[in-house]
Specification:
Layout: E1 2-13, H1 19-24, E2 26-36, H2 39-44, H3 53-65, H4 71-85, E3 89-99, E4 109-117
Antiparallel strand pairs: 1-2, 2-3, 3-4
Helix pairs in contact: 3-4
């Protein structure tokens, strides 16, 4: 089993509970961790045998374009989309961080990490 990580993907998006957040937007950082069998790609050195990182990024980018009220919803949609597109994923975790959240104080970020495991 191998672990693929894409760290600190940055997006400006329009997610949030408050209407102003969905109008003004905010900065988000995402970290993805995927567990998959990468032996075929390791042996063949051919991208057709690999879980394509660029495709994973594009899936996440598309999900970030869809407005959500909650970080939990964003994370779940991303995991579902990844599992729908990649058959080789055994387990995946996504961390979604909202930078400088409007919580009435100086806060660097709030985040949620969600994990999904393949059903066999």
């Amino acid at each position: 089993m191998s672990i693929i990580e894409i760290e600190e993907m940055e997006f400006y998006a329009y997610h949030g509970h408050y209407e102003e957040e969905r109008i003004v937007g905010n900065r988000f950082l995402l970290d993805l961790k995927i567990e998959a069998d990468c032996m075929a790609a390791a042996q063949s050195d051919n991208i057709k045998d690999a879980l394509n990182y660029q495709t994973a990024y594009k899936i996440i980018r598309e999900q970030m374009k869809q407005k959500s009220h909650l970080l939990e919803n964003i994370a779940q949609r991303i995991l579902n989309a990844l599992f729908d597109n990649f058959q080789d994923i055994k387990k995946a975790s996504i961390k979604v961080r909202k930078m400088n959240p409007p919580m009435g104080g100086q806060i660097k970020s709030v985040s949620i990490t969600m994990t999904k495991t393949a059903e066999f």
